[in-house]
Structures are given as structure tokens and as C-alpha cells.
């Protein structure tokens, strides 16, 4: 009776999940007759994009987009993701446009159409406060840090041969800044207003050079697509330039301090203060992490059990199929699999995935492959005599498997199942790369605003440690209650 109720509960849960995912992308469009777009941004690039204490996205880019949308009567969904991933996702058709401090370059003009350039900037080099480097000539033979896919990185590469430095790459600005401040790399290249904001808010760097390679930021769409959106952006931008709205937006953020967005004139950057100021974001990040973990392990378990059983069925085709699935999805790194599902498949098929759905599919396939391997191993470890005895009593193969072999094998698998649950919890952090704001990405977003890397990562680490400790206690309890003791 209990087993039947449990199966019904799981099936109902899956139905609700799939129904929610299926309606996520259509609900917003149905709610309004105004044109609706999905636009990506990078919320770790202050003062152009960042998150305030209430978890709302603010910044020069965000406010410009909001003002233009209001004037031109269109709605949009803003999806935060790392800059490089967002730029690729626009080209794959996942998003309609990108508004993320994207420098307009000749190479990008080949694949993007840009609206009216909206901000002029220049690239500067920055070094640690105690650095002895005096000019770019001193970089010869040393390593500099660059942010993947940015105009600043492109400029640095253009002068790399001239000054003889080596490069290493990072996906977010704060990690890049800290790498230089700690002395792991000797310098970085960044857009001037972004670096000035970071230094003003506590990053221990200093500017080495004057602005160079002056260029413009642009609002970009895939070349030849969404021309109506580009037209609306251009018309709206002209309007906010004419009436002074644009100048007010820029003045609001250039030179601003973290306290402007933290909601307090005197920001408390102690560990307790950071926890108190950002509790809503942390709670949301924890909730997203747990939701991904629970749904991911449910889907992975269903997938893994099916594949694991097929791996031991005395049939060459099913055995070969299951072995191939296990080999492929255990062999692919989780990050590569996530990018392939979220960006690669839409490029080929034109079918969009939400970040949540892509993340759940990634966890299902990757974690499910590991589950399949230990399910197959657990079932194989049951003495062959058990199956033979059951068959001799007249039970069919599948009935003998369900009634005799599986109950014994499951006892052996319980510790592995719970350990996989813990691994899945940790693996959710990788999904931040495709724009899911779980706990790790929450930490990155908070740091981009306040530059308190050590304290925020300490808090994030403690939160993960608490969750994993609770799951470890669960593993021990489950092993004691259901294991083969």
C-alpha cells in the first residue's frame, strides 16, 4: 500500500514539474498583447549591471532598457548569465538580445546587429596596490588576467605580442580582480568605469594606464533577427537622450558606492552584517539549490534505475544501449553537458530551453549515469542463485527481478543513493554558468556589488557545509535503517 502511494506521489510531482516547465515560456506572452522579448544580461558588471539588496537588477544598462521599454511599449524578461555564455546564447537563438556592456567591435558586427551605441568607454590596465610595475613594458614574461569574451580582453590580446605577456581567463570580474590583488597574476584589463567602480568599493587595485581603444557599448541581436526590437531600441534611446533621462541614469551610477544599492548609508561589511543585508538573496539561492537537488535526484533516480536494469538484462541490445548511455554521460564533464543542452542543441534545432529545464536535464543525464552504474553493480552483486531459485519456482524473469533480486540489491545501494544526493547538491553550483541563480551564483552577484569576496565566500561555504552535514546525517540514518547491516 505504501509503495503504491509513493509511486503515485512521485508521478504527480513529475507531472506538476513538467507542467510548470511547459507553461513557463508561454505564460508571460499570453498575459499581454505587447511585444515580449527575452533579453540576457550579466549582473556582475557594475555600474552597468548589478543586483541591489532586494535582489532587483539595477545599473546603467538595466535602467536604460527599462526606460526604453516603457516608451516603446514592449515587455521583456531579463535573464542573468555570464557574459560569454549570454553572447553565445543570443547567437543560438535562446535569447532575443543582449544588454550587458557589450563593446561594439568589427568581429562582433559580423554576427550581431547593434542598436545606437549608448555609452563610450575605454580600456585601462590595473595592477595590485603594492605592485612595482610602472608601465606595460614591465608585463613582459608575466601573466595578466582577462575576462572571457570581453572587449577589454580583445584589446589586451591585440597588444600581447608587443608587450610579451601571457594571459589567463576568468568568467566573472570579481574573481579576476582578486586574482590580481592576491598576486597570482600581475595585471588585468578592464573598461574604465567598471574598474573605477570596483576600486571605489574596496577592490585593492590601482589603475596603471590611461584609457585606450575607446569604443562604444551596444545593444545586440543576432544578425538579421529581431529588427523590430532594434528599431524600438533606437527610437526609445533617441527619446531618452533628448529629454535628459539618459544623463540622469548615467549620473546616478557613475561614481556610486555600494551603500547606494545596499539600502544603508553605512554598510556593515562584517560577516554578520553581510548575512543580514543579503539574507533574502541567500535564502533564494539556498531554495534554488535545494529545488535543483531534489528534482534532479528524482529525475536522475528514475533515469538511472531504468538504465541500470537494462544494463543487466540478458539481452545484447539492451545491455549495449545501457552501457553506451552510462559511458557517454559519465564521461562528459557536467559543464560541457550543460552548455551542449542549453546552447548547442538550440543552435541545431531552433528549439529553446529554459535554463531550469536545461539544468534539470543535465543533472538527470549526468547523475543518472552514475546511479545507473551502481544500480547495475548492486543488482549484479545479488547471488545468482536467488534468480535461479525464483525462476525454478515458476516466476517470470521480470517478476523474479522485482520480487526477489531488487529488494536485496536496493539494500546494498542505499548508501550510494544518498552519497549521490550529496554529490548532486554540490554539482548544482556548476549550473550557474547557464544562468541559474543558485547559491554559488548568488554569492558571485553579491560580491559584484560589495567586493567582499572573502566574507561572502565564507558565508556561502558555511551554507553548503551545513546542508551537506545534514545530508550526511541522513545518509548514516538511511544506511542504518535500510542498509545491509
UniProtKB/TrEMBL annotation:
Its membrane topology: Multi-pass membrane protein
Top enzyme class: lyase
Chain segments annotated as transmembrane: 290-313, 325-345, 357-379, 456-475
Pfam family for this entry, one: SBP_bac_3
Residues in the signal sequence: 1-30
Keywords of this entry: Cell membrane, Lyase, Membrane, Signal, Transmembrane, Transmembrane helix, Transport
A GO molecular-function annotation: lyase activity
Entry's family note: Belongs to the binding-protein-dependent transport system permease family.
Matches recorded under NCBIfam families: HEQRo_perm_3TM (TIGR01726)
Name this protein carries in UniProt: Membrane-bound lytic murein transglycosylase F
Name of the gene encoding the protein in the UniProt record: mltF_3
